[in-house]
Design goal:
Layout: H1 11-19, H2 34-37, E1 44-45, H3 55-60, H4 70-87, E2 93-98, H5 101-112, E3 118-123, H6 126-137, E4 141-146, H7 155-165, E5 169-173, E6 175-176, E7 181-182, H8 186-195, E8 199-203, H9 215-218, E9 222-225, E10 237-242, H10 244-252, H11 264-273, H12 282-298, H13 300-321, E11 324-325, E12 336-340, H14 347-358, E13 360-361, E14 370-374, H15 382-398, H16 405-418
Parallel strand pairs: 1-13, 3-4, 3-5, 5-8, 8-9
Antiparallel strand pairs: 2-10, 6-7, 9-10, 11-12, 12-14
Helix pairs in contact: 4-12, 5-6, 7-8, 13-15, 13-16, 14-15, 15-16
Bound molecules: pyridoxal-5'-phosphate.
Length: about 425
């Protein structure tokens, strides 16, 4: 920068000269206001997350409070106790994580595994593979048990690989969102892994509060979830729970965690001692509080029933359109429904068209020839289902595919009525 003040100027003159000086090296950009970027009416978020949020969550998300102090302490206390209900655990070691579901996954992995730790990852697809990758990155000795697309792990194969590799930690996904597979024998997987002395980490990001999962009763050591899926909160604040056995491993480890933010012992200072770790995402925590409170108001039993009823009705509507569901019924996930596309129609075409023409967002899936419609939290509402099945059917017609739109909508209605309206 050139100095265009003169030594004889007074300090005030020098300041004035500085503010009128040549333009800064990085010029101020011209940008559009959000109102001209966002659609006039929000799109209906029916993809694999984030999902629509209730008003109470949106309102809470607009509030900023002190991240330390009595008000926050009360909020945190309630978040933990509601999270215990949702996880079905009495464990003391429930914590929030500032970050996506993946940050909670990384918190689980990086606190339980370090260089040399033997980790077995059951890999059904994209997200279960991510946990294996995280374990490799902390230097663990990772074995993967790769499961074919649209299949569930063979318990015999699991027992054999456990026998052979003696893992200290086993990771598994409850619902594999990428190919819409439900690991329906999760309880057996946990039992077999626990019998060998391993700790079991379960990714329940898309399933928590949408279908039964009982951390204590099933013997799970770590459960993780994100905010923006089943809980219908905002993305960016996640939850994790450790069993006593898992916490003991975290507490007594001698190798420090390379992730400072994700160090569970440091995080405990905030989540249990009302002390400072990092500035908590207060608005997001308030939003999560409201999301959890709404789960408690509804109760898990009713919430599971709502999810099942809505997802099965959606599946019935999609099938009646003449489209194929991607995953066989025996291991089909209800939380996210995968739909195979007719030849000549690409996921990108469908997702773009349904969004632009019908203001409904759905998702593709990491190179698979499918589109996915979420059934998590607020997505499981009848009026959203009608709009979505209609928009999907119209989109397929517009793209030249042969679907029976009236039959799809009728099947949706029949399925919902048969299951009984509430
Ligand atoms: C969405 C998802 C994740 C990742 O969550 P992010 O919030 O995107 O990091 C992990 N596992 C499963 C099963 C998911 O559905």
């Amino acid at each position: 920068m050139t100095d265009n003040t003169r030594p004889t100027d007074s300090p005030a003159q020098q300041r004035a000269a500085a503010t009128t000086a040549a333009a800064l090296p990085v010029p101020c950009p011209g940008v559009d206001p959000l109102t001209s970027i966002l659609p006039d009416e929000p799109l209906l978020m029916m993809g694999a997350g984030p999902v629509p949020i209730p008003d109470a969550v949106a309102k809470a998300n607009s509030v900023v409070i002190n991240h330390l102090g009595d008000t926050m302490a009360r909020v945190i206390d309630q978040v933990k106790s509601m999270a215990r209900y949702v996880f079905q655990t009495r464990s003391n070691w429930v914590l929030g994580v500032a970050g996506p579901g993946s940050a909670a996954m990384e918190m689980a992995v990086s606190n339980l595994a370090w260089p040399g730790t033997r980790v077995l990852s059951i890999v059904n697809g994209f997200f279960s593979g991510r946990m294996a990758e995280m374990a490799r990155r902390v230097g663990a000795e990772v074995t993967t048990l790769d499961v074919a697309d649209r299949e569930i792990v063979s318990l015999d194969a699991l027992a054999q690989v456990i026998e052979r590799t003696r893992p200290e930690v086993v990771t598994v996904v409850h619902g594999e969102t990428s190919n819409t597979v439900w690991n329906r024998q999760l309880q057996d997987i946990v039992r077999i892994a626990k019998a060998s002395g391993a700790l079991v980490v379960v990714d329940a990001v898309c399933t928590l509060s949408t279908m039964p999962l009982e951390m204590d009763a099933w013997g799970i050591d770590v459960v993780i979830t994100g905010g923006q899926k089943g809980l219908s909160s905002i993305p960016g604040v996640s939850l994790i729970a450790f069993s006593d056995a898992a916490w003991e491993r975290v507490r007594t480890r001698t190798v420090p965690n390379t992730h400072w933010c994700l160090d569970a012992m440091l995080a405990e200072n905030f989540w249990h001692n009302a002390g400072y770790h990092y500035t908590a995402p207060v608005s997001g925590v308030l939003a999560l509080h409201e999301a959890l409170r709404l789960v408690c108001t509804e109760t898990l039993e009713k919430r599971f029933a709502r999810h099942q009823r809505c997802s099965l009705a959606l599946q019935s509507g999609v099938t009646a359109l003449g489209l194929q569901l991607y995953t066989p019924e025996a291991c089909r996930l209800n939380s996210v429904v995968g739909i195979a596309l007719p030849a000549g129609v690409t996921p990108r075409d469908v997702c773009n068209h349904i969004s632009q023409q019908y203001q409904v967002e759905i998702a593709g899936s990491f190179g698979l020839p499918i589109v996915r419609i979420g059934q998590m939290g607020e997505q499981c509402r009848e009026h959203h289902l009608f709009r979505t099945v209609h928009a999907l059917g119209r989109t397929m017609c517009d793209l030249g595919a042969n679907v029976d739109l009236p039959a799809g909508v009728a099947a949706l209605e029949e399925s919902l009525s048969a299951a009984g309206r509430r």
